[in-house]
Amino acid sequence: MSRLSVLAYIFGAVFFLVSCSFAVFYGYKILTHELPVEKKPVEKYDYHFVLVTEELDNEYWRLVEQGAKAAAKDYGVMLEYAGPKQANIDDHLKTIEMSAASKVDGILTQGLSDEQFTPLIDRVVASGIPVITVDTDAANSKRMAYIGTDNYYSGFLAGKALIQDTKGQANVAIITGSFFANHQQLRVKGFQEAVKGEKGIHIIDIVESEISRVRAAEKAYQIIKDHPEVNAFYGTSALDGIGIAQVVDRFVKPGKIYIVGFDTLPESLEYIRKGTIQATVVQEPYEMGYRGVKMMINLIQGKPVEPIVHTNTRIMRIGDLPVSHLYRMEESN
Description:
Strand content: 15-25%
Number of helices: 11
Helix content: 40-55%
């Protein structure tokens, strides 16, 4: 073998060994996950807020959350969405306390009960953390501002809608989400004020659903059994109207019982399309969440903020449905 051939052989062997070494080295890196990875940039934010709701998976509050998160994205805020899985005032209060203990920059929440929420909100504000109430006010507390529905007026609108649609002749049962929540009380009071001068309208019963569509359905079924004279229902929360409609749709002839409810969740709109629900009070939960975050930023920055901001409230009937729902109604016919 010539000297040139020997050198070529040695060079090839060395190249082969080096290649194998690199293959083993990088194979080991892959197996042990030690290869360098691209680091994701840490998202920067100016403020840290918490939105505390009465019930995490409530569809209405998910709309509030969507609005708040949209504003948080637009204005450089880290927003947490927290609260009990099912409506529970004690758990709601604990969530507010934990949020305050973590030294967040601001808390947005409901003021469900003056007796329980006012002392806590006052302590949180005294500790230097601003509180804005959303949807339900704690007017006697030291909260910095309120944004949401005028709940008394919304109940009054529901009562006027019932008078108009029933021509002032109805035996009404009211199913309310809570006997103790401020906003539910105001919605009942507004309704009562609207119908009190109508001789042909009688409120037969008022029961509580505990913010549960299942409980609302159970209560509606029991009322229909116990009070066959009832020919109208008023539900003061989104889930109340849906629960009532489920029972009426299944057990009562169409058009025999009038229903006025709250909100425009997909199921509510479907029952309006079918004619089971005749009217609903429209609120603006997305706007509450979005504008609530903006108000909190303004407060922290020392800008003027109105202490009470009422979002729009109106009545929706079948003629006011979005075009997409009307098309579906034509197709079903």
